[in-house]
């Protein structure tokens, strides 16, 4: 549990999740506490030992994500009957999001991604959305996450397209260095290649050093070089400084 003046007001447009997570503070009437979902043990020495999670919250690329929030947004789509979101390993052996849905009709799941992008930040949009006829269940009647089919990792791999100008060439080179990959095309997804917020800062810093400027927030909205290119500002030229002091006339 956490509390204090910096506590958030709640989840955006998710009143049910807000009610579950933000509860009255028994120590300070009128204030609230947030259920973090962290499971800890208090030792006799007064230390807290972290044991894991008791909910569906995960950490993806440095962002703490509530899986039920993504599931709730999927269920707002008219075609989705049931939804479950979990983590899988991508081609770079990094944790990534995969959503499994049961639909009411034969709908292209690619449209689901576009719909989610209107209500969720880019890092919360699943890399894969897989349609199933039914979910595998455990003996306790819960979805058996371990029995869900693995996503087609290659399905997210894009056809390589070379940079079209000097800025895209510069960006491709920076991404290759920062992400540690051999070749980056203009349609490759920064986060699918293993990028995270820290690597994004490194990329923006390298870009600034080369004389160009990028608002880091745009990377989450436009995670490919082709999408990002229009927002790369013109070279930053510093004003020349006159180091010669003027002589005073008498």
Automatic annotation (TrEMBL):
**What does the record give under GO molecular function?**
phosphopantetheine binding
Q: Which domain of life is it from?
A: Bacteria
Q: Which UniProt keywords apply?
A: Phosphopantetheine, Phosphoprotein
Transmembrane region(s): none
Q: Name one GO biological process term.
A: secondary metabolite biosynthetic process
A Pfam family this chain is assigned to = PP-binding
**Gene3D superfamilies, from UniProt?**
3.30.300.30, ACP-like, Luciferase, Domain 3
The keyword Ligase is annotated on this UniProt entry: no
Q: Which GO terms describe its cellular component?
A: cytoplasm
Output the PROSITE patterns linked to this UniProt entry.
Answer: CARRIER
Q: Where is the Carrier domain?
A: 162-236
Cofactor section: pantetheine 4'-phosphate
The family note in this entry says: Belongs to the ATP-dependent AMP-binding enzyme family.
Q: Under which name does UniProt file this protein? A: Carrier domain-containing protein
Native species: Bacillus safensis
Organism lineage reads as:
Bacteria, Bacillati, Bacillota, Bacilli, Bacillales
